[in-house]
Amino acid sequence: MNVPLPIDAISTAQLSSIKAQLDLVLMAIEALTGMGSDAVLAAAQDLQLKQTLSDRVGLWRLRQSSPLRKGQGRKKLDIDEARALVLVVCHLASGHHHSIRQAVARLEQLTAKGEAPHRAAVLGDYLDNFNNMYCDRMADPVPETEKLAQLSLRLLIDLLFYSAPGGERQLWLALLDRSKG
Fold first, then answer.
1. In this predicted model, what pLDDT tens digit does every residue of 12-70 receive, in sequence order?
2. Taking a C-beta distance cutoff of 8 angstroms, is the pair 134, 142 a contact?
């Protein structure tokens, strides 16, 4: 990935935010596609990132580094691991581009009609999966249902951009921008 990243300019707080955002994006693609750690590890192998993401335990520890997670703090996320996760997320999103595009198109249709997203099967399943994963994995307090739904739908739309050519750059820029606020 040829995205310049001023490592010295990233504070501990920003890195913490990046860890949380990466975990949420991974959770969104998992919620939509039903994939699990095997798919993440296969993507890492496809991208020749086996050194960074070699096994389920290592991946679990890496994801547990998110400050939003229950029992977080077991492993620190470094810049190379963050870069690897960005590549993996975008690789996975690219592989599921058609599904992501269909879900976002359905969301747009329902929004234009003023209908609730959960009325479409694909979006209802996605929202339920994301909500369940969030409640199971993340530390309390869990946001109210409406805020969690808004977060999951924003992440779904973001996945469309990350699945496109140049998605890695889009994700890095989003991570850096969101980490500043």
1. 778 888 988 999 999 999 999 999 999 999 999 999 998 888 888 888 888 887 888 87
2. yes
Whether 5 is covered by a domain: the verdict is no
Q: Provide the whole-model pTM.
A: 0.89
Residue 138 lies in a domain: yes
Q: Is the pLDDT of residue 156 over 90?
A: yes
How many structural domains comprise the chain? 1
**Is residue 4 domain-resident?**
no
Q: What is the dihedral of CA 134, 138, 139, 142, to 10 degrees?
A: -20
CA-CA distances (angstroms) from residue 55 to 41, 43, 82, 126?
Answer: 7, 12, 16, 26
Query: What b/e readout covers 11-47, taking b as 16+ CB neighbours within 10 angstroms?
Result: eeeebbbbbbbbbbbbbbbbbbbebebebbbebbeeb
